[in-house]
Amino acid sequence: MTKQQPWWNGAVIYQLIVRSFADGNGDGIGDLQGLANRLPYLRWLGVEAIWLTPIYPSPLQDGGYDITDFKSIHPELGDLAAFHRVLIAAHSHGIKVVMDLVLNHTSTLHPWFQRARWAPEGSPERDVYVWSDDPKRYADAPVLFRHFESSNWEWDEVAQQYYFHRFLRHQPDLNYDSPIVQKEMLDVVDFWIERGVDGFRLDAVPFLFETEGSRCEGLPETHEFLKRLRARVDSHGKDVLLLAEAIQPVEEAAPYLADDELHGAFNFALTAHLFASIASGTVEALRECLQAAQNAVGGSRWALPLRNHDELWLGDGHLVSEDVIQTIRAGLHQGQGHWLNWGINRRLAPLLNGDPGSNRVMHALLYSLPGLPCLYYGDELGMGDWPGLRDRDPNRTPMAWTPGRNGGFSTAPDPLLVLPPITAPGYDYRVVNVEVQKQLPGSLLNWHRRMLTCRKLLPALRNGGFELLECAHPGVIVYVRTNATMTVMVAANLSAAGASFRLDLSRWSGERTREVLWGCDFPPADADWFVYLAAHGFSWWLIGEVEESDNSSEDFEGQQDKLSPDPSGALGSPTSASSRRA
Ligand code: NOJ
């Protein structure tokens, strides 16, 4: 018997903001009831898990990442019973539920903080947070939200001391040197696991501990605590995913993936390299980053987002090189303006100038590279954004469901809406919405659904090994994903011009090659295998025959009709190949 893989191995994760997704009670704010109503859509789309940005009580000074109670639900979104209903419904649709868990900080309105500021200096209650008389402590820790804060310290009149905050001044950092903090946060994890959640996206994990003379990121004590957390999760005997948000270069993010630490971590450096590739039309740096990530931690443990609810974080030269940052700033349509903190504050579609071809090729990579692909709500439609809204709100506007009132998000009058639905030219919800795109065979939405179906039928994309192949064309990346039953070859042209190139497939000489997205046979593999990819074109080929698998639901041969030629053109432009021998 083969060992059952954990549910997250290669799972496609759909990230959504509950308050912006669907309003179930007509008050203008998305909620858990609304989410429950829309779960059939997510099953139809083919995602395997949803990640909910924080749903805890919060004054919302940082989109809910400023929490006042870790064991409850924000009343505008519902209550624990409503959350239970979402969990049960999601599970009945075969969808796992991942919660955001903010370990590093709370809101200043959290009772722990209010108690701390009134407690005597040096008392256990005061020490739940990080205090100092000197705001120059930890001076090497960069200010992350540099457009909102000029220091990591804030003076507190009541405590008559400064408190430390890596994010907004409304978000004091918890002090993980305090046993009370460690105990409380481990209890929080127990609380939600007992309620049935399938995983946690661990917010801002690098920052749990501080040491003088360092950036205060990923310190040994932080890893020790995360190992305790992992042991605690394991003690429940359930498959619960721990996914780290650590915006660090690959070599600094990899240690979170030690065997006894976390299961997954976002690879933000790879995200930046994907954008740099599409901006420059070249793939060399992307190849290097991919190889480095695989060398550091093989398999499918890197989670890969294109966009999320934050700005596209590029950093101060620590995450990726200045060259990569400049390539993105200069080459992406919206790269120059819209700079917020250390990144670009725009959604995917406007960053790609609304070009569905670029959207498709980037997702064709996302869905075929090793790891957990993360799809941000609305990006499957090419949804736009609202520049000019405060902070990161431009990227957090209501999901567009229908061409009707408020895009079908809510029946409430406009002024009550959590954020304005998009009516910007080119992205108007009357055009860009689920209902309309479902009816258009060539729509981006139908394309995403079809790609996710193909991914399911090609388990090598989920759990297979990864190997880059040589390709002389500077704009084309080629790799193979191989597991016990199949070999899938992927080629993608990141440049905005057509590309013809030769591949040496002598290793599979004489084997059948079938393009699976278009459903057509290509010449047998050989040493001189020529391919043409249109601008931003891509292809997935099966090389050789598919071996029998013990998992009939993922049996490719039995389901080939699902991969028949695509009459709509929804998969992108056709590819051609020839072989000198053919
Ligand atoms: C990372 C989250 O993604 C971001 O939205 C938040 O502002 C910070 N962590 C602070 O919690």
Any overview of this molecule?
With 582 residues, the protein is an alpha/beta fold. The protein has 3 domains: 13-107 and 177-451, TIM Barrel, CATH 3.20.20; 111-164, Oligo-1,6-glucosidase, domain 2 (Alpha-Beta Complex), CATH 3.90.400; 463-563, Immunoglobulin-like. It is built from 15 helices and 23 strands. It has helices at 18-21, 32-45, 80-92, 111-118, 179-194, 220-234, 250-253, 268-280, 284-296, 322-331, 348-351, 356-366, 434-439, 444-457, 459-463, and strands at 13-16, 49-52, 96-102, 131-132, 153-156, 161-164, 199-203, 241-244, 264-266, 302-305, 312-313, 339-340, 343-344, 372-376, 465-468, 476-482, 487-493, 499-503, 513-515, 520-522, 529-533, 538-543, 576-579. An 8-stranded parallel beta barrel has the order 1-2-3-7-8-9-10-14. Strands 15-16-17-22-19-20 form a 6-stranded antiparallel β-sheet. A 3-stranded antiparallel β-sheet has the order 4-6-5, with no helix packed on it. Helix 2 (32-45) runs parallel beside helix 3. The protein is globular and about 80 Å long. 1-deoxynojirimycin (NOJ) binds next to loops. The site of 1-deoxynojirimycin has 10 residues, from loops.
